C-alpha cells in the first residue's frame, strides 16, 4: 500500500480528488489531505509519503518550494504537479527535480489524473523491486567482516555487556560507520509467522531482512542490522547530518516512516509478516540493551501473535513532577491504555494504569475544576463504551450504579469517585474474563478500533493515524479490517459519521456547518454532497422531515 497526499489551497479540489481516489479501492491508497503547503509540511514531518498530488501555485509557499522539502525528507517520493496554462514556466523548472514524475494541466479530466497516478505508483514499485533484488543477491562485503560485525553488535546489545571505551576503535576496525559519542536510534524487527520457511532457513532469511532494512534506510543514514536470536533483529541508526538544524526530528520521522515500507517489503518479497517497534528517540550506546528489552516487551504485549504490529515506544515513564496541563494529557493517554487493558482483558495492566492515573494527582484531584470534569467524563465515557463493547446484559446492572457513572460535578470527592470507578473496572474485567473463551482476539481488536473512531469523529481518521493508535502496520490494518469486518475501514467511518450527523440533525439545533466540523469535514460543501449522496436528501431536508425519535440512528 502506498500513501498519497493531496495538496491544494482550494478545499473543493482537495475533497473532490480525495473522494475520487477513495472510491477506487483497487489502487490501495492511504490518502492524506492538505489544504496548504504548511499543512503538507506537517504531514511530511509525521508520516512517510510515497506520492504527492499538488497544486503548483499556492499562497505563502508554492508547489516548487514544497518539492524541495519533499526531496529532503522522502527522496523516494514521486510528485505530480497540477498547473494552469500561465504556470508553464513553473512546470519546466519542476521537471528538473528528481522527485517530479509528471505535471498535469488543471483542465485535464479526472481519468487523465488517475492514469498519471497509476503510472507513478508503477514507477515506485519498479524502483523498489530493482533495488531489493540487487540487495538480496549482491554481496558487498567479505563474509568474515560481516560475521565480525554481527558478533560485536550482538554483544553490544546484551545487558551484561553494554558500551565500552573502545567502541570507536571497534566501529572503525569493523567499518560500521557509527560514532560512539552520538546517540543511536534503536528499532526491533520480529518475525511473527515463518510460513513456508523451515528452521534451517531462518538465519539466511534474517540476513535478508536485515539487508532490506539497511538498503531502505541507507540513503540518508548510517545503519546496521544485528541478529538477536532466530526470530528478531535490532536495527541501529545514526544520522549522517547530526548537527543540522531539526535533524533529530527529521531522523525520527524518516526512520519510522521507512520501517513501515520495510514491513511491506518483507511481506511482498519474502512472504513474511514482520512486526516492528521503534523507540521514540535516540539514546546513548550504554542504554541500547535497555531499549531492545523495552521494544521486545512492547511487541509481545501488543495485539495477538501473527498480527503485523507497528509501534513507537517510549523509554520514559510519566514523571512525578509535571505541569498541570501535561498531567491532564497524561491522564487522557492513560485512560486509553486502561480501556485497552479492560478489553484484552489484562487485569494486571489495568491495575497498573489505574494506579498511574491515581498517582498523577493528590487526593483532592486536579486543582482546575474544568480539568477535573474533563477527566471524569472521559473515564465515564470509556466505561460506558466498554459496557456496550462487552455486551453486559442490562438486567445484571444496577440502575443506581449506572446513574452514578455520569452523575458527578467538580465538587465531588476525587478519591471516592476513583474508588467507585475502580469497582466498575473490576466488574467489567470479570465479565470480560468470563467471555474470553467466546470472544476472539479479532473481536477485541475491532472493539478497540471502533472505540477510537467513535471518540474521534472530529479528528483526522486517516489510515496512518488509526494504525498508530492500535499498534499495527497501516497496510496490514487495511487488509485485516476488510477481511474480518467485511467492509473497508473507510466505509465504516463513513457509516458512523452519517449516523452521528443524522442524530445531531434531529436531536440538536446545531447549524449544519457546525455539525460538519464536529464530524471532521473541513469543507461544509463537501459534507453537503457527502450527506446527499448517501441519504438522497440534503441535511436541512432531513432535519425538516425527521421526528425526534433518535433510536433508529444508532450506528
UniProtKB/TrEMBL annotation:
Domain of life according to the entry: Bacteria
Gene Ontology molecular functions: DNA-binding transcription factor activity; sequence-specific DNA binding
Key words of the record: DNA-binding, Phosphoprotein, Transcription, Transcription regulation
Domain Response regulatory, first and last residues per copy: 3-121
InterPro entries recorded: CheY-like_superfamily (IPR011006), Homeodomain-like_sf (IPR009057), HTH_AraC (IPR018060), HTH_AraC-typ_CS (IPR018062), Sig_transdc_resp-reg_receiver (IPR001789)
Record-linked Pfam families: HTH_18 (PF12833), Response_reg (PF00072)
GO biological process: phosphorelay signal transduction system
Keyword Cytoplasm: no
Residues covered by the HTH araC/xylS-type domain: 447-545
Modified sites of kind 4-aspartylphosphate: 55
UniProt-listed PANTHER family: ARAC-FAMILY TRANSCRIPTIONAL REGULATOR, HTH-TYPE TRANSCRIPTIONAL REGULATOR EXSA
Entry protein name: DNA-binding response regulator
Organism: Paenibacillus silvae
Amino acid at each position: 500500500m502506498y500513501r498519497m497526499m493531496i495538496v491544494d489551497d482550494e478545499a473543493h479540489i482537495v475533497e473532490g480528488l480525495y473522494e475520487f481516489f477513495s472510491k477506487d479501492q483497487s489502487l490501495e491508497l492511504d490518502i492524506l489531505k492538505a489544504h496548504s503547503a504548511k499543512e503538507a509540511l506537517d504531514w511530511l514531518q509525521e508520516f512517510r509519503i510515497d506520492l504527492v498530488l499538488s497544486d503548483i501555485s499556492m499562497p505563502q509557499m508554492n508547489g516548487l518550494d514544497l518539492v524541495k522539502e519533499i526531496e529532503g525528507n522522502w527522496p523516494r517520493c514521486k510528485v505530480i504537479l497540477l498547473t494552469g496554462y500561465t504556470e508553464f514556466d513553473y512546470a519546466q523548472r519542476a521537471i528538473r527535480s528528481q522527485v517530479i514524475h509528471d505535471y498535469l494541466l488543471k483542465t485535464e479530466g479526472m481519468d487523465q489524473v488517475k492514469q498519471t497516478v497509476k503510472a507513478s505508483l508503477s514507477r515506485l514499485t519498479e524502483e523498489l523491486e530493482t533495488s531489493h533484488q540487487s540487495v538480496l543477491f549482491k554481496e558487498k562485503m567479505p563474509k568474515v567482516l560481516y560475521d565480525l560485525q554481527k558478533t560485536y553488535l550482538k554483544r553490544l546489545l546484551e545487558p551484561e555487556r553494554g558500551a565500552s571505551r573502545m567502541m570507536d576503535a571497534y566501529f572503525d576496525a569493523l567499518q560500521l560507520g557509527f560514532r560512539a559519542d552520538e546517540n543511536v536510534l534503536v528499532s526491533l524487527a520480529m518475525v511473527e509467522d515463518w510460513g513456508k520457511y523451515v528452521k534451517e532457513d531462518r538465519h539466511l532469511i534474517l540476513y535478508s531482512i536485515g539487508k532490506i532494512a539497511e538498503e531502505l534506510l541507507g540513503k540518508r543514514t548510517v545503519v546496521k542490522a544485528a541478529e538477536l536470536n532466530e526470530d528478531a533483529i535490532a536495527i541501529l541508526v545514526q544520522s549522517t547530518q547530526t548537527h543540522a538544524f531539526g535533524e533529530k526530528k527529521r531522523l525520527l520521522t524518516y526512520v519510522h516512516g521507512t520501517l513501515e515500507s520495510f514491513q511491506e517489503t518483507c511481506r511482498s518479497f519474502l512472504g513474511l509478516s514482520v512486526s516492528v517497534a521503534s523507540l521514540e528517540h535516540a539514546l546513548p550506546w550504554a542504554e541500547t540493551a535497555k531499549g531492545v528489552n523495552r521494544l521486545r516487551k512492547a511487541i509481545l504485549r501488543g495485539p495477538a501473535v501473527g498480527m503485523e504490529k507497528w509501534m513507537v515506544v517510549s523509554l520514559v515513564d510519566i514523571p512525578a513532577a509535571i505541569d498541570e496541563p501535561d498531567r491532564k494529557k497524561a491522564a487522557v493517554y492513560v485512560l486509553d491504555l486502561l480501556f485497552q487493558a479492560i478489553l484484552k482483558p489484562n487485569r494486571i495492566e489495568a491495575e497498573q494504569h489505574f494506579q498511574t492515573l491515581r498517582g498523577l494527582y493528590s487526593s483532592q484531584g486536579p486543582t482546575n475544576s474544568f480539568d477535573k470534569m474533563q477527566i471524569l467524563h472521559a473515564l465515564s465515557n470509556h466505561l460506558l463504551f466498554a459496557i456496550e463493547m462487552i455486551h453486559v446484559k442490562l438486567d445484571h446492572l444496577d440502575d443506581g450504579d449506572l446513574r452514578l457513572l455520569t452523575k458527578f460535578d467538580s465538587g465531588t470527592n476525587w478519591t471516592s469517585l476513583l474508588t467507585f470507578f475502580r469497582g466498575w473496572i473490576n466488574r467489567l474485567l470479570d465479565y470480560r474474563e468470563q467471555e474470553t473463551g467466546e470472544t476472539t482476539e479479532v473481536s477485541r481488536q475491532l472493539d478497540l478500533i471502533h472505540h477510537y473512531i467513535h471518540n474521534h469523529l472530529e479528528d483526522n481518521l486517516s489510515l496512518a493515524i488509526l494504525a498508530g493508535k492500535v499498534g499495527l502496520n497501516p497496510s496490514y490494518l487495511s487488509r485485516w479490517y476488510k477481511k474480518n469486518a467485511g467492509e473497508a475501514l473507510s466505509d465504516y467511518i463513513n457509516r458512523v459519521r452519517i449516523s452521528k450527523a443524522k442524530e445531531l440533525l434531529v436531536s440538536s439545533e446545531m447549524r449544519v456547518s457546525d455539525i460538519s466540523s464536529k464530524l471532521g469535514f473541513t469543507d461544509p460543501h463537501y459534507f453537503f454532497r457527502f450527506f446527499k449522496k448517501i441519504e438522497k436528501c440534503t441535511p436541512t431536508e432531513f432535519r425538516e422531515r425527521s421526528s425526534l425519535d433518535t433510536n433508529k440512528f444508532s450506528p
